[in-house]
Design a protein that fits this description.
The chain has 16 helices and 24 strands. By secondary structure, the protein is of the alpha+beta class.
Length: about 575
């Protein structure tokens, strides 16, 4: 498994047979020499082994030392007169780059498993000619391949190579979240049914039930939910978009990493590209792009190129140039082996040292806000060094604190270099920075006007629920009730407002903040029938005693093993 935790697919003989016998995408002859490139623990090996054995062809094994040396592997393919083989996309790209001549006698080359590189595919097609290259797609759960596409032309406008049409005895559905079929051109989850489907996962009944669902269109059959995003094209082929779980949220924006990778791969000097969402020391997420180039491209050039097609929030904060992408034993890109940014960024701008005290201070602020170790010159652009709108607000705050000058946020976008920013600081009016300081610890604190008003209304009618703020949430799936209770306790510990009560002391309205040890909190837990939920929720909302903290109560109703209702109620 690419995650390092194999799920154990229960694959049947007939699943494998449909890949290599009486199928619509390839015919294997007894005169073929098939190369076994795939590790036998990887589902691709079943195409090699049974493709040869069930068709009377010759299976050619390869030593690990040869497999790991691209030049030797190329010579081996030529010397053994290999006619058919399957290879992962990453390995296909490397062969095309390093030793394309080894493909001259190939009858059929199949590749797939990752995002396609249009440049490599075009180069291979120009070299080997038509009817020889097949782009295949399929998760292990549907046994090696589910779709195929004969590459005889490159659609530059599409910007990728489709994954094609279903194999024999295989059905493909593009579905929405409610398992309804989607029309051509609309993205949805790619789902598979047919003879390729495995029985499920070994000793994982819950996961099997989640992924292999009842086919809503054919009674008595199963359908496998791949977790891949795809769409039908007008010509009946399928375009692979990316992973459903490859969508990430960065600073509130939902981003499909595959879109950025696709855009990078369109650059004439980029051979391979991967984009990851990483977490910084302060748990802030950022994008990091990894590229293999034909010739060096500077960060500003890359950013400028991406900005033509993508919004700013989709531009990676860091770019790391690699000689080659690290691969897993299965020949796919090993994302876990990709290095983290070291804080050193080559912006491609000539370094000019700070010339005065303002510029020196700004250099230090830039480095601290951006958390980088690179040499920062006065002509370096804040955004080329990994800055974004959120970090720009931090920069504005630091400038105000350090220089007693208030700069509008828009000016950081207009004047993103230290050289330009220092001139603005020197000509701006002074604006004293006032830091909000925590109040000293006291036995009690005065109430605000709004608190006094609410407290008095409560005293006039102690049965009122006017200021109650209830919430009801349905939870689906396996639930750890202890973790939920501990989470609420952590919130109460962390936030003093959740440990605050209100009373009168010496004719003065005050608020008291209790110590963590003095707070008693427990979730009200009960098992219920579905029809009683509404009444229970209604009864749960009752008046609070303002003199007793926390002014928060939580209830958890167990409807069934995988369904709960979480009720919260707190005082305004």
């Amino acid at each position: 498994g690419s995650t390092g935790r194999p799920k154990g697919n229960m694959t049947m003989h007939y699943n494998v047979t449909r890949v290599v016998k009486n199928t619509n995408y390839i015919e294997i002859y007894d005169s073929d020499n098939i190369l076994q490139l795939s590790n036998y623990a990887f589902d691709g090996s079943t195409f090699d082994i049974y493709g040869a054995l069930l068709n009377g062809a010759k299976l050619v094994m390869v030593k690990k030392e040869i497999l790991l040396n691209i030049n030797e592997l190329g010579s081996f393919i030529e010397n053994e007169n290999i006619t058919v083989f399957f290879v992962t996309t990453a390995l296909f790209n490397t062969l095309v780059d390093v030793n394309i001549k080894c493909l001259k006698n190939i009858r059929k080359i199949l590749f797939g498993g990752e995002r396609v590189s249009l440049k490599h595919t075009k180069k291979a097609l120009n070299y080997v000619g038509k009817d020889k290259i097949i782009h295949v797609y399929g998760p292990t759960e549907s046994t090696v391949y589910a779709t195929y596409y004969n590459i005889n032309k490159i659609d530059e406008k599409l910007g990728t190579v489709p994954i094609g049409v279903p194999l024999s005895n295989t059905q493909i559905y593009i579905l929405d979240k409610n398992n309804n079929t989607l029309p051509s051109g609309v993205e949805g989850e790619l789902c598979i049914s047919g003879d390729g489907l495995a029985r499920g996962y070994l000793n994982r009944p819950e996961l099997t039930k989640e992924k292999f669902i009842e086919n809503p269109f054919i009674k008595g059959e199963k359908i496998y939910k791949t977790g891949d995003l795809a769409k039908w094209l007008a010509d009946g082929n399928i375009e692979f978009i990316g992973r459903v779980d490859n969508q990430v949220k960065i600073r509130g924006f939902r981003i499909e990493l595959g879109e950025i990778e696709n855009q990078l791969l369109k650059h004439k000097d980029i051979k391979e590209a991967v984009v990851l969402a990483r977490e910084g020391e302060n748990d802030d997420k950022y994008l990091c792009g990894y590229i293999v180039e034909d010739k060096e491209i500077t960060v500003p050039q890359l950013r400028e190129y991406l900005r033509k097609e993508l919004p700013d929030y989709m531009i990676p904060s860091y770019f790391i140039s690699l000689e080659s992408m690290p691969l897993t034993p299965n020949g796919k890109i090993d994302k876990r082996a990709l290095p983290k940014p070291d804080g050193k960024i080559n912006t491609g701008v000539e370094y000019i040292a700070p010339r005065n005290e303002v510029e020196e201070k700004l250099v230090q602020i830039f480095k601290e806000v951006l958390d980088i170790e690179s040499k920062v010159g006065i002509k370096d652009n804040f955004f080329d060094l990994g800055g974004h709108s959120l970090k720009a607000t931090m920069l504005v705050s630091r400038v105000h604190k350090e220089f007693e000058v208030e700069i509008p946020l828009i000016e950081i976008f207009k004047l993103p270099t230290i050289e330009k920013l220092s001139k603005l600081i020197e000509t701006s009016k002074e604006s004293i920075y006032h830091e909000i300081k925590p109040v000293e610890k006291r036995e009690y604190y005065k109430m605000s006007s709004a608190q006094k008003r609410m407290y008095i209304i409560n005293q006039m009618d102690k049965e009122t629920t006017t200021y109650n703020m209830p919430g009801v949430l349905k939870l689906t799936g396996k639930l750890d009730t202890n973790r939920i209770e501990n989470t609420f306790k952590e919130l109460i510990n962390r936030h003093e407002s959740l440990r605050t009560s209100f009373t009168t002391l010496e004719d003065e309205l005050v608020q008291l903040v209790k110590e963590v040890s003095d707070i008693e909190f427990k979730i009200e837990y009960r098992e219920v029938n579905e029809e009683k939920i509404q009444d229970i929720v209604k009864d749960f909302i009752k008046p609070f005693n303002l003199s007793k903290a926390p002014l928060l109560r939580v209830g958890l109703l167990k409807v069934r093993e995988d369904e709960h209702i979480l009720i919260t109620d707190m005082h305004h």
